[in-house]
């Protein structure tokens, strides 16, 4: 594959992820707490999983853009650490109170309750 084609595919993937994340945020999927960090949904609520996945994709998009602009996520990076270095504008949160682990290999997050948002989410 030619380098130009690979770059174009990479940019298309980034734009697609960004649009999905923005759409999720615009329809209110990113509202996950009462402002005090208290979970607003039960872990058993099917909607909580969808909101969690939308928030993971939004966070992944932010980190992906940061990496494309020269940022370097490191193994062992935490959500709070990513906020501190500017890779995330705010922490990724789960509406049911799950904790996240960051995977620097593909800039994804995994929730302790809902797991990893599948490709194409």
Tally of individual domains: 1
Strand content: 5-15%
Amino-to-carboxy terminus distance: 26 Å
Computed CA radius of gyration, to the nearest angstrom: 15 Å
Poorly predicted ranges (pLDDT <50, ≥5 residues)? 23-36
Find the structural class using helix and strand composition. Answer: mainly alpha
In short:
With 121 residues, this protein is mainly alpha-helical. It contains three helices and three strands, in the order αααβββ. Strands 1-2-3 form a three-stranded antiparallel sheet, with helices on one face.
Detailed description of the structure:
The protein has one domain. 30% of the residues are buried. By secondary structure, it is mainly alpha-helical. The protein has helices at 3-26, 46-68, 79-84, and strands spanning 100-103, 108-111, 115-116. The chain is built from three helices and three strands. The protein has a three-stranded antiparallel β-sheet with strand order 1-2-3, with helices on one face. The two termini are 26 Å apart. Residues 23-36 have low confidence and may be disordered. The protein is globular and about 45 Å long.
What is the topology?
Elements: H1 3-26, H2 46-68, H3 79-84, E1 100-103, E2 108-111, E3 115-116
Antiparallel strand pairs: 1-2, 2-3
Keywords:
single chain, 121 residues, mainly alpha, 3-stranded antiparallel β-sheet, 3 strands
């Amino acid at each position: 594959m030619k380098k130009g084609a690979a770059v174009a595919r990479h940019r298309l993937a980034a734009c697609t992820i960004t649009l999905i994340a923005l759409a999720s945020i615009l329809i209110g999927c990113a509202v996950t707490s009462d402002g005090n960090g208290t979970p607003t949904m039960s872990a058993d609520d099917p909607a909580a999983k969808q909101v969690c996945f939308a928030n993971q994709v939004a966070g992944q998009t932010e980190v992906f853009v940061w990496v494309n602009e020269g940022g370097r996520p490191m193994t062992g990076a935490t959500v709070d650490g990513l906020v501190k270095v500017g890779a995330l504008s705010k922490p990724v949160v789960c509406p049911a109170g799950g904790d996240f682990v960051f995977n620097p290999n593909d800039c994804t997050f995994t929730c302790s309750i809902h797991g990893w948002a599948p490709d194409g989410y």
